[in-house]
Amino acid sequence: MALLSGCFSSLWDHPQADLMQQRSFPLRRALFQRSGTQILRPPWSSEQRVLDGCTSCGACLNACPEAILIAGPAGTPKVDFTNGGCTFCGDCVNSCPEAETVFAPRKDEPWAEQGGLLATIGDGCMLSFGISCQICTDSCEPEALRLDLSVRPVGRIKLDTEACTGCGACIEACPEQAISTTTRPSPAPSEETKHA
Ligand code: SF4
Ligand code: SF4
Ligand code: SF4
């Protein structure tokens, strides 16, 4: 993929670059479709929005003060929480020349168009092995992570799904890389919907 990204950089440097950066450029679309795996796009954005409007200019990558935006397929932005969490500052949106297409309004929930985002604690958590730790709870500003001491012998991290903003700050904090993010489960259908 690095090689492919390199190819795109040289394409964009070509004198015909303006023409080549037109939004529905077929080669670009094909490259996106081949990338296969689900990529986390910047907050307020989505795969479709990036496909429709992103020109791979890199402005948002440079603007992000947390350095969590890195170049994904064809130089388009993707989120990498291994460097830290999103503060929802909106600098990526403000820097983007194509913001009207690439980003939803900032009043919207930042991950809404990507299925919502939640932290998830994996099997690697030290508490699962009886080793005390609660480093992740200190990294979580909204206090969505708590040590539940009712679970023996050393407790278990409990996630408050309502409080979690999907900021990803806990991912970098965990010394065992036991935390990742997942999309929010769809709400259970109400009785009225079920019988409609
Ligand atoms: S909102 Fe701010 S911290 Fe989050 S990805 Fe955009 S620039 Fe980075
Ligand atoms: S600033 Fe906008 S157009 Fe440029 S790479 Fe980021 S999302 Fe794409
Ligand atoms: S993703 Fe953010 S809000 Fe959610 S648990 Fe981790 S640090 Fe807390």
UniProtKB/TrEMBL annotation:
Q: Is the keyword Zinc-finger in the record?
A: no
The answer to whether UniProt assigns keyword Metal-binding to this entry is: yes
Q: Which GO molecular function annotations are given, in alphabetical order?
A: 4 iron, 4 sulfur cluster binding; metal ion binding
Q: Which NCBIfam families match?
A: napF (TIGR00402)
Pfam families listed in its UniProt record: Fer4, Fer4_7
A GO-annotated cellular component: cytoplasm
Indicate the segments forming the 4Fe-4S ferredoxin-type domain, all copies: 45-74, 75-106, 155-184
Spell out the Gene3D superfamilies in the cross-references: 3.30.70.20
What the entry lists under InterPro entries is as follows: 4Fe4S_Fe-S-bd, 4Fe4S_Fe_S_CS, NapF, PSI_iron-sulfur_center
- The name on file for this protein is Ferredoxin-type protein NapF
Q: Which UniProt keywords apply?
A: 4Fe-4S, Iron, Iron-sulfur, Metal-binding, Repeat
The chain's coiled-coil residues are: none
